[in-house]
Every structure is written in structure tokens, then in C-alpha cells.
UniProtKB/TrEMBL annotation:
It comes from the Bacteria. Keywords: Hydrolase, Magnesium, Manganese, Metal-binding. The keyword Metal-binding applies. This is NUDIX hydrolase. InterPro entries: NUDIX_hydrolase-like_dom_sf, NUDIX_hydrolase_dom, NUDT19. It comes from Actinokineospora bangkokensis. Its cofactor is Mg(2+); Mn(2+). One of its GO terms (molecular function) is hydrolase activity, acting on acid anhydrides, in phosphorus-containing anhydrides. Residues 18-228 form the Nudix hydrolase domain.
């Protein structure tokens, strides 16, 4: 698989770009004999990962740091321990995860109280667009509608950082969440041109035959999701989250993405000098 052009490092770009904090949520549901996950295909031409198939998510907004957000579930300190970050950043990451999932898929991991979840998000359609337009913060949205963020519906899964050689970098925390009963994932976002549910193994098979574009964090997560037979089994997994930073190495005129599990990772440099005609492949 050849990754998008923006993943090719730029010559003479200086020190690595500081990675922006981001959150992404793997929504899963039970189907006969396994699970499905909700996927979006980003619009071609977007500044980052255009044309790639991804999970709902995005960058942390400074207003996600609002400590007044109505909250139920594990504390921000608990999340900070799992993701190896400060309590304030952990709170913002959880808030961003729930907000971005609502904005990009219409799925709202919130309810009137800590024991319930919204079953019909239709009444919040206008608010969803207002959040996309940044008319107010997610904390204000919850307060206006008498809702509580359900942090207990999320599970920590992984932490991937864009390779240092790339011009756009994100420090992304991956969350897992079960699809709330009664809600619908619609993918009605201007950032995607296709959305839907698919078994993890089928999504990987599409990628292998060239029908999908997947970045290393996505196909790795899909492979992990496919190892479990039910949502309950996935949600019960206790994972130790470690920061993963892929590296890019030269193989002729091909720049290959390698992961920490590769024996070559330890000796590989964190950056390479690109050359005309280079391609980037896993």
C-alpha cells in the first residue's frame, strides 16, 4: 500500500513538528459470529490522511480542557495514568473523543445521568452542527441539554504518534466504545465521503486488495479487534497502553514504515532524507 503524498517527509524541514494531541474512537457492535466496527473514508484532498479509511476522531480543542464538563465514570486522573499524561490533558482527550464521535458519526456517549444513555440523538441534530462550527464547547452543549458525559462507556486501547519525519504529526489516543442501543451511526460529516459498519477482517482484506487505504495504526487496531468474538469480550480487555512511534526507513527508492515489533526498528533512525520519486509503504 502506498500512503498519501503528505506522508512523504519534506527535505530540509528542520526539527520534527510537535505532535498535536488527538483522540479517536473505535465504535463496535455485535453481529453474528463476531463484531463490526464503524469506519469513515476521509475526503480525498484533506490536509491529513485524505482518502484513508479511519475511525471517528480528531484533534483536541482547547475548550475540551474545560473542567466543568458534566462527567460520569473513571476520573481524569485514572485516564491520565492509562495514557501517561496529565490529568487535565486526560480530561480533554476523553472530552474530545466523545465530542468528535458525536460530530463525525452522530453517536453520543452521554445521557441524562450516570445510569442512562441517549437513545435518540435526533433532538440534538442542530447542536451537532453547532459543535462542528465551534459555536460553543462540548461542556456548554452538555449543560444546555442536561446531559452527562459517560466516560465509563469508553476503554483505553492504544497511543500512536505520527513518525517524526512527517510534516503533520498527531499524538493520538485510541478509545474503544460499544455502540449505544437505539442510536444510529450515520457518518454525516463533510470530512468523509463514505461511512459504514464492517467486520475488521473484511476491512483488512479490502486494504490488501487495494480497495481501501489504511494507515498502520488503523490496520493494527483492526487486526486486534478481529481477535475477539464479541463486544463484551473486547470491552473486558485490560490493556497496557504504550506510546508507539513508527519509523520510516529507506529501501531503494521506497520509504517503508516500520513498527516497534520489527527487528529493524531498534537500529532505524527517526528520520530519513527523501529523494525525488520516493514512495512510502508499510
Amino acid at each position: 500500500m502506498v500512503l498519501p503524498g503528505e506522508f512523504v517527509p519534506e527535505a530540509g524541514s528542520g526539527p520534527p513538528v510537535v505532535a498535536r494531541d488527538a483522540a479517536t474512537v473505535m465504535l463496535v457492535r455485535d453481529v453474528g459470529g463476531g463484531v463490526e466496527v464503524f469506519l469513515l473514508r476521509r475526503v480525498v484532498g484533506m490536509a491529513f490522511a485524505g482518502g484513508m479509511t479511519v475511525f471517528p476522531g480528531g484533534g483536541v480543542d482547547k475548550r475540551d480542557l474545560d473542567a466543568s464538563v458534566a462527567w460520569h465514570g473513571p476520573s481524569a486522573g485514572w485516564w491520565g495514568e492509562r495514557f501517561g499524561c496529565s490529568e487535565s490533558l486526560a480530561r480533554a482527550l476523553v472530552c474530545a473523543a466523545v465530542r468528535e464521535t458525536f460530530e463525525e458519526s452522530g453517536v453520543l456517549l452521554a445521557g441524562p445521568d450516570g445510569g442512562s444513555v441517549v437513545s435518540d440523538t435526533g433532538p440534538y441534530r442542530g447542536a451537532r452542527q453547532a459543535l462542528v462550527d465551534r459555536e460553543y464547547s462540548f461542556a456548554e452543549f452538555l449543560q444546555r441539554n442536561g446531559l452527562v458525559l459517560r466516560a465509563d462507556l469508553l476503554r483505553p486501547w492504544a497511543n500512536w504518534v505520527t513518525p517524526e519525519a512527517e510534516p503533520r504529526r498527531y499524538d493520538t489516543r485510541f478509545f474503544l466504545a460499544a455502540m449505544p442501543e437505539g442510536q444510529l451511526a450515520d457518518g454525516a460529516t463533510t470530512e468523509a465521503d463514505d461511512a459504514g459498519w464492517q467486520r475488521p477482517a473484511e476491512a483488512i482484506a479490502d486494504w490488501q486488495r487495494g480497495a481501501r487505504g489504511l494507515m498502520p495504526p488503523t490496520w493494527t487496531a483492526l487486526a486486534e479487534l478481529g481477535e475477539r468474538g464479541s463486544v463484551a469480550e473486547l470491552m473486558g480487555v485490560e490493556r497496557s497502553v504504550e506510546k508507539v512511534i513508527p519509523k520510516v526507513v529507506r529501501d531503494g527508492n521506497v520509504l517503508r514504515v516500520i513498527l516497534p515489533s520489527d527487528p529493524a526498528y531498534a537500529d532505524a533512525p527517526f528520520s530519513v532524507d527523501p529523494a525525488p520519486g520516493d514512495e512510502v509503504r508499510p
